[in-house]
Amino acid sequence: MTALKDKDLLRQQALIGGNWVDAASGAVVQVTDPATGQVMGTIPDLSAAETRAAIDAADAAFASWKKRSHAERAALLERWFDLMNQHAEDLALILTLEQGKPLSEARGEIAYGASFVKWFAEEARRIDGTVIPAPTNDRRILTLKEPVGVSAIITPWNFPNAMITRKVGPALAAGCTVVIKPSEFTPYSALALGVLAERAGIPAGVVNIVTGMPAEIGAELTANPTVRKVSFTGSTRVGSLLMAQSAPTVKRLSLELGGNAPFIVFDDADLDAAVEGAIASKFRNGGQTCVCSNRILVQAGVYDAFAEKLGAKVAAMKVGPGTQAGNDIGPMINRAALDKIARHVADAVAKGATVAARAEIPEGQYAAPVVLTGATTEMELASEETFGPVAPLFRFETEDEAVAIANGTPFGLAAYFYTENIRRAWRVAEALEFGMVGLNTGAVSTTVSPFGGVKSSGLGREGARAGIEEYLEVKAFHMGGL
Ligand code: NAD
Predict the structure, then answer these.
(1) Can you give the pLDDT at residue 184?
(2) Which of 99, 158, 216 has the most ligand 1 atoms within 8 A of CB, as the residue to mutate?
(3) What pLDDT is attached to residue 1?
């Protein structure tokens, strides 16, 4: 980390009530650079008692934070946004070192992450209520919007910066205070955001960051009645566990969970555009994104041509350390991720798929980008997220068949399709059971559009105007006897 311009951004302590702390037990968790396998440093492995202290700090800060004017909260968020931009290079480097993605992608994530803080600083000024005509003349009815309260923010390793700001931006704008629990694989991006929040002048206790192994911390965050909201991004397995753990205290929940995105190429598609879209949606972050195309469905008439064009691009991909310019794909996050990818490819090949293209990879924690032809719905990769650079091509004959395959999983996060036919565009967009649908584009993530899924992909929406509502309660205020 010698290359950091501001070394103070790399913190190896948790942030509770404005104090940077170690675990009382002295326990730590090591953080590893996935490109080299070297230990970057440690983080405190906090207990339930320390998590409780963070919740209490957030609760103490809530009393005054919610009373600040929207303009004051917005001004502090704007300052935080400016600092993220000023330190973008350092934030990107920390992100690449702990997560692995190419630096160019990390820079993109920092800009994307910061954009949520800016957006919700602006939205803070637009929190309003309504006046409802009352049933009798002597009454008035108003709705007031109030912050939900202390919010637990639990985030994954694949977007260690943006998944935090997409939650904390609206939470703070709404007047909530937060306890963030970042992934134990990528805590340093979160802690650097904590340093910048402090420098921005966001008061102590408004942003708390607890680190360590998740089960004990998560159990406290969900059981503690002071926490009124849990916002989680991660796997469906953990999301439903947190939902169950939150049930006894009936917390508000936002769950951004796993996906299994279909990417449908119809016979009438612009094939070169479809190949570009497939590359973008499949291989960004090495295929480790929740909106990644997991199943590429190609109509019979263009199947071979599409496979050839995609295969040529995939075989030419450069794989290596994210810090080395020119690499398209970095290391996978850990050995378990590599094992899952290998299992999916082996299962597909055993069931009749062919490796039609494969890129070279160096020694280390790398997965080869591959195109698999002859994929079928019986294969494991059809029903589970691979979370790696594997592009399986499924052949279909009719539009109805494509839609049925696309909808045929428990997930409903993102779906993509390519067609030049306007009638088909409407039909298919309406038939797809997903929270986000991309027509002739492989990108659906932007600050201004609601992000979220249906079915087992989750509850609630982030970003856009909808994002701040997740942190607001509606209070109906009835005035009588007028
Ligand atoms: P994960 O569910 O393993 O972990 C996510 C977070 O939950 C981490 O901070 C982890 O430490 C924590 N966690 C794990 N067990 C916990 C417990 N018992 N109590 C409390 N917290 C616990 O997911 P991951 O492997 O970090 O991320 C990959 C998954 O996230 C994929 O399924 C991906 O699709 C999903 N994801 C979804 C979105 C979205 O917006 N829908 C975005 C990014 C990633």
Answers:
(1) 98
(2) 158
(3) 60
Return residue ranges of the chain for CATH 3.40.605.10.
Answer: 14-257+457-478
Ligand 1 geometric centre to CA of 158 (Å): 9
**What superfamily does domain 14-257+457-478 belong to in CATH?**
Aldehyde Dehydrogenase; Chain A, domain 1 (3.40.605.10)
HSE-CB at 336 with a 13 A cutoff on CA atoms is: 1
Q: Pick from 185, 162, 187, 154: which is nearest to 335 by CA?
A: 185
Dump pLDDT digits (tens) for 244-261: 999 999 999 999 999 999
Ligand 1 centroid vs 223 CA: distance in angstroms?
19
Which residues of 10-139 form beta strands (DSSP E)?
14-16, 19-21, 28-32, 39-44, 130-132
Residue written as token pair 């006894």: 248
pLDDT for 291-317, tens place per residue?
999 999 999 999 999 999 999 999 999
When the pLDDT of each residue in the chain is averaged and rounded to a whole number, the result is: 98
Give the tens place of pLDDT for each residue, 87-126: 999 999 999 999 999 999 999 999 999 999 999 999 999 9
CATH architecture type of domain 261-439: 3-Layer(aba) Sandwich (3.40)
| Cα 238 to averaged position of ligand 1 atoms, centre (Å) | 7
Average pLDDT over residues 137-148: 98
Q: Which atom of ligand 1 is nearest to the CA of 239?
A: 2
Q: Distance from the CA of 271 to the center of ligand 1, in angstroms?
A: 34
Query: Considering the entire predicted model, what is its pTM?
Result: 0.97
- Give the integer Cα–Cα distance in Å for 245 and 223: 6
Strand order in the sheet with 414-418: 354-358, 370-375, 390-396, 293-299, 261-265, 414-418, 436-439
Q: Which ligand 1 atom is nearest residue 290's CA?
A: 34
Ligand 1 atom 23: residue of nearest CA: 234
Residue nearest to atom 20 of ligand 1 (CA): 218
Judge whether 473 counts as a catalytic residue. no
Q: What is the DSSP letter of 372?
A: E
User: What ipTM was assigned to the predicted interfaces of this complex?
Assistant: 0.95
Residue 2 has pLDDT above 80, yes or no: no
E strands present in 237-384 = 252-256, 261-265, 293-299, 354-358, 370-375
Whether the CB of 244 sits within 6 Å of ligand 1:
no
Question: Given 105, 198, 256, 470, which residue is catalytic?
Answer: 256
